Amino acid sequence: MAAAFTAPVAIVVLLFVFDWRFGLAAVACAVAAFGVEAAGFSNKSITDKMRRHLVNQERMTNATVGYVRGMPVVTGPYL
């Protein structure tokens, strides 16, 4: 967890060390990404679509796991 926080900060600091314009571009992109994410979470239709997507993704994952676990039963010990 410490690396998840330290690595991006270290990269931005290194970008500022090598060239301040790279560091400024990285910070601007991060701020813009947080702004877009905040706007998405405040929009009710987007959060509803995301909820439906995650529910469907969970259903597909469960179906895939069930299919893979059932393979030895169908194929038998010969494969």
Kindly state the number of beta strands.
Answer: 0
Gap between N and C termini: 42 Å
Shape descriptor reads elongated
Strand content: under 5%
Helical proportion, percent range: over 70%
Helical/strand content category: mainly alpha
Domains (count) = 2
Low-confidence sequence ranges: none
How many helices in DSSP terms? 3
| Main sheet characteristics | none
> What is the succession of H and E elements?
HHH
Rg: 22 Å
Mean pLDDT: 87
Can you give a write-up of this model?
With 79 residues, this protein is mainly alpha-helical. The chain folds into 2 domains: 1-42, no CATH class; 44-73. It has 3 helices and no strands. The protein has helices spanning 2-18, 20-42, 44-75. Helix 1 crosses helix 2 (20-42). The longest helix is centred in the last third of the chain and has 32 residues, at 44-75. It is elongated. The mean pLDDT is 87.
What is the gist of this entry?
The chain has 79 residues and is an all-alpha fold.
Task: Give keywords.
79 residues, mainly alpha, 91% helix, elongated, single chain, 2 domains, 3 helices
Layout of helices and strands:
Layout: H1 2-18, H2 20-42, H3 44-75
